[in-house]
Amino acid sequence: MRAFALAVMMVFSLAAPSAAQSPRIIVEDVWIMTPPPGATEAAAFVNVRSEGNDRLLSVSCACAARAELHEMRMEGATMSMRSLRYGAPVSANAPLAMSQHGVHIMLIGLASPLREGDTVQLRLTFQNAGVASVDAEVRRR
């Protein structure tokens, strides 16, 4: 996993026009929760660290009609989920750690069933760092 994080970090350092313009992004622990049989949606998770201020704006995946950033939140005694239309911030002081009961990615309109052990590519688009393509393993919690 460490080698994967270093590879992603190297890609961003090579792709960025200069360190002053784009913070370096490190994407780790990329996975998709195994959906139940027949499901048309699945939840995906990543952890993102940055050397500066940035924002994860969107996610896309060939495995689904669309991917959306969502957040689970307690409102009184009720758990609710809302779309993060403006993305999710990430900075050196506040990494983005996705979880089942917090910020996560919803893959909606799955093109085919996702099975435990499958690998799916996610494209993460950041406001400053640009696009990162990462492989997500389908697994149980």
What level of helicity do the residues show? under 10%
- State the domain count: 1
Please count the helical segments. Answer: 1
The major β-sheet equals: 10 strands, mixed
| Strand-pairing-aware structural class | mainly beta
Might you state the CATH topology name?
A: Immunoglobulin-like
Describe the structure using short key phrases.
10-stranded mixed β-sheet
What would your notes on this structure say?
The longest helix has 14 residues, at 2-15. Mean pLDDT is 87; it is low at 1-8 and 10-19. The chain is built from one helix and ten strands. The protein has one helix at 2-15; strands at 25-33, 41-50, 54-61, 64-75, 78-83, 88-90, 96-97, 103-110, 119-126, 130-139. It has a single domain (2-139), classed as Immunoglobulin-like (Sandwich). A hairpin with a 7-residue loop joins strand 1 and strand 2 (41-50). By secondary structure, it is mainly β. The protein is globular. Strands 1, 2, 3, 4, 5, 6, 7, 8, 9 and 10 form a ten-stranded mixed sheet that branches. Helix content is 10%, strand content 54%.
